[in-house]
Amino acid sequence: MTKNKILIVDDEPNVCQFLAEYLDYKGFETVICYSGIDALKYLQTEPFDAVLLDLIMPEMNGIEVLEQMRQMNIFVPVIIVTGVRDKKVAEDAMSLGAVDFIPKPIDLDRLEQSLIVNIKNLQ
In this predicted model, what pLDDT tens digit does every residue of 15-71 receive, in sequence order? Predict the structure, then answer.
């Protein structure tokens, strides 16, 4: 059985490492990148089953990454994982196609369930 492949996009290495270790333990395959620009490069060259995307990053924020993904016809489930707790920002992300909005500190059970549900809906 192949593992579902998750792209983790966050400019904080400790957050990426924490998520990768947890998701690897739960049976997912993970790839980490620390910028939106790198995320877009990965998404153009490798298939992913879902993306965990931070909003506040230098150079290109998560909303801009999501907009670029849609312009590039990349429709992978995107779960926003962020410290931002602004309802308007959450609505903007959802209107661009994000499938969930999970605030930091991250509820790992909720994250895992969101991944399972949204990957299953894609298949």
Answer: 999 999 999 999 999 999 999 999 999 999 999 999 999 999 999 999 999 999 999
The answer to whether the beta carbons of residues 47 and 36 sit under 8 Å apart is: no
User: Residue 94 is part of which domain span?
Assistant: 5-122
Please, which residues bridge with residue 5 across strands?
29
Q: Which helix (H) or strand (E) holds 79?
A: strand 78-82
Q: Report the CATH number that the domain containing residue 108 is assigned in CATH.
A: 3.40.50.2300
Count how many domains the chain has: 1
Q: How far apart are CA 58 and CA 46, in angstroms?
A: 23
Look at the alpha carbons of 21, 17, 87, 70 in this order and tell me if their dihedral is positive or negative.
negative
Whole-Å CA distances, 34 to 1, 16, 56, 59, 75? 29, 8, 11, 11, 20
Sign of CA dihedral 102, 71, 28, 25: negative
Backbone angles phi, psi at 116, to 5 degrees: -60, -50
